[in-house]
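To whoever is on call:

I kicked off a structure prediction for a single chain this morning and the downstream step that reads the tokens threw a length-mismatch warning. I double-checked the sequence; it's 116 residues and nothing unusual in it as far as I can see. Pasting both halves so you can look.
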Amino acid sequence: MLDCRLAGYHLRLNADAATRLLGDATRVLVARRAEDGALLLAPSAERHLLRFNPGHCESLVKLRNAHGDKAVALHELYAEHHLAPVDADVPLDIETDDDLGLVILRQATPAASREG
């Protein structure tokens, strides 16, 4: 099961989500889409994917534990957009745009959270 959450200044992915969504990437580009607040992730090598999203930043992908869970620091993105950190774990809905190679993350809807 893919699990992705916001916690504090970090995006946390369980091992399944990290493997499927990030592969072996050690850096990702992160942007916040203005119209809906969704987070967009793309491999750093694909800089052109986020050229239309000003304020994107590059973040390290860090291994969180021996299970393969990973985290992406969002400090720079939060500062750029004047966002407050998230106090509790906030589950995210995951969407992929395979044509563009983007991962799109939005705050989970209650129905999606129950299904997960």
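Update from on-call: the warning came from a stale cache, not from the record. Cleared it. Sanity check on the structure: The longest strand covers residues 86-97.
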